[in-house]
Amino acid sequence: VVPGETALAFYKAKNPTDRPIIGISTYNVIPFEAGQYFNKIQCFCFEEQRLNPQEEVDMPVFFYIDPEFAEDPKMAKVNLITLSYTFFEAKEGQKLPLPGYQ
Fold it and tell me: What keywords would UniProt list here (predicted)?
């Protein structure tokens, strides 16, 4: 992905069980310092997703890397940014803590 240009990626999720699952996805950007330049335009994360038994879905994320990434001297040696997601079953009444806050 070239900084400043939009990109579309798909993440595959599968429910291997015999019951429906409602889940939520959270994301991570590595290296952490590059996270400030990662901008999601549209994403499935932080929204509940229902997966039926044995269902497999492709979930889209539309994003761009801020062009200022290329101007930041601390990012000069960063050639690879990894975006990863964790999908976990939502529990009724359970609230997610906000990252960085206690």
Answer: Membrane, Transmembrane, Transmembrane helix
